[in-house]
């Protein structure tokens, strides 16, 4: 297999392993998932060292027992190292394959959609990762804002259970 094509495939494995590690950590994946992700990273790194000996001076194999977060970060960093070599021209505005027709819903050109997906799938993936990474902060901010609004809307004094005076 030619070098560029194999590197591209290995980078795709790294991206998916990173996503899988983060998702497993978020959903409470077990030790077996962490072990798999670490082993996968180490196998890909070993192969990349064979193809590109220069990578050895920058990246080390992961230690057994590393966390899912560490595995995900290592996968992302190693994939980023090759990003310039494997990146393709991507863009949402490249796709011209939809024709709205009120009588027949929407027609989609399958080839145009496939081309669009090949060019933009990474951006959709990045959006999903961003949502997963920031959802907890958003929920916490929303809850805090709700409590502030609830306190502001109160028109009566709060009841104090320690107050034994009867009115």
Would you kindly provide a written description of the structure presented here, covering whatever features stand out?
There is one protein chain. By secondary structure, the chain is mainly alpha-helical. It contains five helices and two strands, in the order ααααββα. The chain has two domains: 87 residues, no CATH class; 65 residues, no CATH class. A two-stranded antiparallel ribbon has the order 1-2. α1 packs antiparallel against α2, α1 runs antiparallel to α3 and α2 runs parallel beside α3. The termini are far apart.
Which secondary structure elements does this structure contain, and how are they paired or packed?
Blueprint: H1 3-27, H2 31-51, H3 68-81, H4 83-86, E1 98-100, E2 106-108, H5 110-153
Antiparallel strand pairs: 1-2
State the total count of DSSP E strands: 2
Overall geometric form: elongated
Q: How much β-strand is present in the residues?
A: under 5%
Q: What distance lies between the first and last C-alpha atoms, to the nearest angstrom?
A: 87 Å
The figure for the number of domains is: 2
Average pLDDT score: 79
Portion of residues within helices:
55-70%
Query: What order do the strands of the largest sheet run in, or round the barrel if closed?
Result: 1-2
Assembly classification: single chain
Total of DSSP H or I helical runs spanning 4+ residues: 5
- By secondary-structure content and strand pairing, the structural class works out as mainly alpha
Task: Characterize the main sheet.
Answer: 2 strands, antiparallel
């Amino acid at each position: 297999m030619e070098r560029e094509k194999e590197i591209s495939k290995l980078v795709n494995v790294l991206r998916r392993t990173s996503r899988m590690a983060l998702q497993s950590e978020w959903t409470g994946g077990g030790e077996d998932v962490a072990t798999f992700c670490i082993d996968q990273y180490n196998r890909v790194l070993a192969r990349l060292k064979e193809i590109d000996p220069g990578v050895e001076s920058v990246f080390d194999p992961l230690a057994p027992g590393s966390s899912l977060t560490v595995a995900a970060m290592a996968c992302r960093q190693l994939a980023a190292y090759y990003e310039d070599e494997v990146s393709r021209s991507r863009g949402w505005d490249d796709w011209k394959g939809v024709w709205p027709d009120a009588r027949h819903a929407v027609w989609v050109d399958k080839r145009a959609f496939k081309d669009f997906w090949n060019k933009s799938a990474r951006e959709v993936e990045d959006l999903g990762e961003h949502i997963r990474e920031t959802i907890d902060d958003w929920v916490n901010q929303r809850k805090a804002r709700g409590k502030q609004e609830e306190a502001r809307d109160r028109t009566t004094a709060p009841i104090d259970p320690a107050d034994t005076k009867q009115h």
